[in-house]
Write a structure and sequence with these properties.
Blueprint (H helix, E strand, L loop, with lengths): L2 E7 L7 H11 L4 E7 L5 H10 L2 E6 L4 H7 L2 E2 L1 H6 L4 E3 L6 E3 L2 H12 L8 E5 L3 H12 L4 E5 L3 H8 L5 E4 L9 E6 L15 H4 E9 L7 H8 L3 E3 L2 H16 L6 H9 L1
Parallel strand pairs: 1-2, 1-3, 4-6, 7-8, 7-10, 8-9, 10-11, 11-12
Antiparallel strand pairs: 3-5, 5-6
Helix pairs in contact: 1-10, 5-6, 5-10
The structure holds 2'-monophosphoadenosine-5'-diphosphate.
Length: about 270
């Protein structure tokens, strides 16, 4: 019997996680089965209980349940505690334990795949919701010279920033005059085809800057805005692959190579 894992979200049918974990399992000679489970809104804990009772050994959690997954766990890793969200659940080591691999997934995509060194750089994160909360701790730990969180609702950005020493929070109007080496879009604006109210790209991006949209699989207005100013732009497909590889490592004790999988996804 293969060991059972799943990704749980709502909606979840289009998740690439089953495909990713199947590639990793084959490459690492691990006998696992990985499925998609759509949890009804309001029934996430019951869905997890049922999956565990059916022998599930671990799960990935995606929108909109990452904060609920954090509450479900008996204990969590340090990085999940900082993010206050869980995307990786482990069931086969006693009480449910939670981890968060999103932040390290972003760091690995930036530093290894895109060869963007964060230390000493000026970094802007757009957004202060769950997605931003998941990556700000890791970006902070990478030692940027400056870390600014900007959000449409400025108070949420300030509340997030205050938790990380040296980090500031503001509304988009607070960015005037600031220039960044990396701008990470952690808002959901792109899903609605919208662009946050940013200053002009010429003002916002330093020479050689990188624009990164955590959304993947679609050309967002933010990526178009960056490219129009000839700024290097990347979607979040590499982060998706890297966070999955880190989850696989947590569960199976072996880190899969991500290069060929990422190349295959980029080819479409
Ligand atoms: P997620 O888990 O994807 O982060 P969320 O917690 O609902 O989802 O947060 C969505 C984020 O996208 C928020 O930062 C939101 O800004 P507000 O806090 O001001 O609502 C941001 N967002 C969504 N649509 C946006 C838009 N059209 N322009 C700017 N920011 C937007």
């Amino acid at each position: 019997m293969p060991d059972r894992y799943a990704v749980i979200g709502n909606p979840v049918a289009h998740s690439k996680s089953p495909w990713l974990h199947a590639q990793f399992a084959r490459a690492c000679a691990q006998d696992i089965e990985y499925m998609c489970i759509e949890a009804p809104l309001g029934a996430f804990p019951a869905t997890l209980d049922a999956f565990r009772a059916a022998g599930g050994r671990g799960a990935n959690v995606t929108l909109p349940f990452k904060q609920e997954a954090f509450l479900y766990c008996a204990s969590v890793s340090e990085r999940a505690r900082e993010a206050r969200a869980v995307n990786t659940l482990v069931f086969d080591r006693g009480e449910p334990w939670g981890d968060n691999t999103d932040g390290v997934g972003l760091l690995r995509d930036l530093e290894t795949n895109l060869r963007f060194e964060l230390r000493g750089r000026r970094v802007l994160v757009m957004g202060a919701g769950g997605a931003a909360q998941g990556v700000v701790p890791s970006l902070h730990s990478a030692g940027p010279a400056q870390l600014v969180v900007a959000n449409r609702t400025a108070g949420k950005a300030r509340a997030l920033a205050v938790r990380f020493k040296g980090t500031t929070g503001c509304g988009y109007d607070g960015l005037a005059g600031d220039t960044f080496d990396l701008v990470v879009n952690a808002t959901s604006a792109g899903l609605a085809g919208e662009l946050p109210a940013l200053p002009s790209a010429q003002e916002l991006f330093a020479p050689g800057a990188l624009a990164y949209d955590m959304v993947y699989g679609r050309d967002t207005p933010f990526l178009a805005y960056a490219r129009a100013a000839e700024v290097r732009a990347s979607d979040g497909i590499g982060m998706l692959v890297e966070q999955a590889a880190e989850s696989f490592l947590v569960w199976r004790g072996v880190r899969p190579d991500t290069r060929s999988v990422l190349a295959a996804l980029r080819r479409g």
